[in-house]
Write a structure and sequence with these properties.
The protein is an alpha/beta fold. It has a single domain, classed as TIM Barrel (Alpha-Beta Barrel). The chain is built from eleven helices and ten strands. Helix 7 packs across helix 8. The structure holds ligand PBG. Ligand PBG binds next to loops.
Length: 323
């Protein structure tokens, strides 16, 4: 029997050799830390389904942003948790609403050393928990929602956001937000579009994180997990409407779509390693069933290897500290 002529194992013989030939690396600048900032609290509150993640007070959020700057993270993605919600999500437009003040705080701390990004969606602010306003029949009203999104984008830009992240999956949202920003002289505020966002069970812990009041699900606006071509359709629409960065979400079960999108656009591609993906690893590690640090690094590496230039992850600070 002939011995093999080609021996791939030669390149795995030592840590130094493996480091030399490693194809995928993650720079802290490619990581974005999602953060929850709650109104009316003085101390950060733990989120039981996301061990290690908190609802920040305004003061603790400032500290976390300062730490993110010192770690060299690419940005923070801010979510607001208001005390009061209503049918139209009016807290989203109020300059004194929790998300807008959290944006201003973050920008005050970060300046231009790190990018302040904000979730542009109504679900944290509506009493029914949907991403848009409802019509008389109780359906999410696409076009009425778009008008609010435009104003919300301008409010977030005025508060200091460098990028806004429309995440409601309303048709036309990127174009409407772009036009509203431009009309308000915010040409330099960029749009990180949640382009291919699926109706996923893996957002479960996020619902606790933002005290969501959602009844039912989001399947009339978020995508069916069974569909891949549709992700491309959604993404190309967002590019045409003026997205600066497109995002796939969730990440782990959707690596094929990250790779597909990466192949078809020239702008940066982001992926969101969502709450349920975080909690599964944390829960298994807490049981001693997997090596926590290796599982985290493998998760982020896999998302990068699939083609994401930018990764939103609740582990951003930890991964940056290890980098
Ligand atoms: C919508 C939004 C959601 C997430 C980010 N933006 C919830 C949803 O669409 O149901 C989920 C993020 C996560 O699970 O980590 N504002």
């Amino acid at each position: 029997m002939a011995f093999p002529a080609d021996r791939p194992r030669r390149l795995r013989t030592s840590p130094a050799m493996r480091r030399l030939v490693r194809e995928t690396r993650t720079d802290p600048a490619q990581l974005v830390l999602p953060m929850f900032v709650a109104e009316g609290i003085d101390e950060p509150q733990p989120i039981s389904s996301m061990p290690g993640v908190v609802q920040h007070s305004r003061a603790s959020a400032r500290e976390a942003v300062a730490e993110a700057v010192s770690l060299g993270l690419g940005g923070v993605m801010l979510f607001g948790v208001p005390e009061h919600k209503d049918a139209t999500g009016s807290g989203a437009l109020d300059p004194d609403g929790i998300l807008n003040v959290a944006i201003a705080d973050a920008r005050d701390v970060a300046g231009d050393d790190l990018l302040v990004m904000s979730d542009l969606c109504l679900d944290e602010f509506t009493d029914h928990g949907h991403c848009g306003v409802l019509d008389d029949a109780g359906r999410v009203d696409n076009d009425a929602t778009l008008e609010i999104y435009g104003a919300m984008g301008v409010a977030q830009a005025a508060a200091g956001a460098h990028l806004v992240g429309p995440s409601g999956m309303m048709d036309g949202q990127v174009g409407v937000v772009r036009a509203a920003l431009d009309a308000a002289s915010h040409q330099d505020v960029a749009i990180l579009a949640y382009a291919a966002k699926y109706a996923s069970a893996f957002y479960g812990p996020f619902r606790e994180a933002v005290d969501s009041s959602l009844q039912g699900d989001r399947r009339t606006y978020q995508q069916d997990p069974a569909n891949a071509r549709e992700a491309l359709r959604e993404t190309l629409l967002d590019v045409a409407e003026g997205a600066d960065i497109v995002m796939v979400k969730p990440a782990m079960g959707y690596l094929d779509l990250i790779a597909l999108v990466r192949e078809h656009v020239t702008i940066p591609v982001a992926a969101y390693n969502v709450s349920g993906e975080y909690s599964m690893v944390e829960a298994a590690a807490a049981q001693g069933w997997i090596d926590r640090e290796r599982a985290i690094d493998e998760t982020v590496t896999s998302i990068r290897r699939a083609g994401a230039d930018i990764v939103l992850t609740y582990w951003a600070a930890e991964v940056a500290r290890r980098a």
